[in-house]
Every structure is written in structure tokens, then in C-alpha cells.
Amino acid sequence: MNSSKVLLGVLGGVAAGAIAGILFAPAKGSKTRKRIVNKGKGYANDVKGKFDKVTKDFSNQYETILQEAKDMVSDLQER
Fold first, then answer.
1. Cα separation of 11 and 17, whole Å?
2. Any transmembrane segments, and where (predicted)?
3. Domain residue ranges in the chain
4. What is the Cβ-side half-sphere exposure of residue 2, based on CA atoms within 13 angstroms?
5. Spatial distance between the Cα atoms of 61 and 69, rounded to a whole number of angstroms
6. Which pLDDT score, from 0 to 100, does residue 79 have?
7. What residues contact residue 22 under an 8 Å CB cut-off, 6+ apart?
8. 3-class DSSP state for residue 73?
9. What is the pLDDT of the chain when averaged over all its residues?
């Protein structure tokens, strides 16, 4: 779980840096707002993809452990 905290910290830092860079860039307000929205959507998609991967990995581990437990129960019943 420590690596997930680091990942969230890095993503948060990148997001804050990107927003600060956009806010201090010389552009019209409407253009800046559009940039912020587009960056936010990009980060949201990245986070969603990472969340989906973690969920899939967790599900795979759960299925593996469940199958191992079933195999152990079958072995014990045979003995």
C-alpha cells in the first residue's frame, strides 16, 4: 500500500504543477479554463485507468486465493 500512496502523491504533485503552470501562463481566461478542464479530464482518465488496473489485479489475486483454498479443501476431504 505504500507504493499506492507514493503514486497518489506524485499524481497530486503533477496535477498541482500543471494547474499552476496553466494559471500563470499568459492566456485569456476562457482559454485558461478550457485548458484546466482538458487537463482535469486527462488526469481523471489516468486515475480511472490505474484504478481499473488495481481492481483487476485485486480480483485476480482473490480468484487465485479462492481456487487455492478450494483445492486445499478438496485435498483434505480426500484424505
1. 10
2. 6-25
3. 2-78
4. 0
5. 12
6. 78
7. 32, 35, 36, 39
8. helix
9. 83
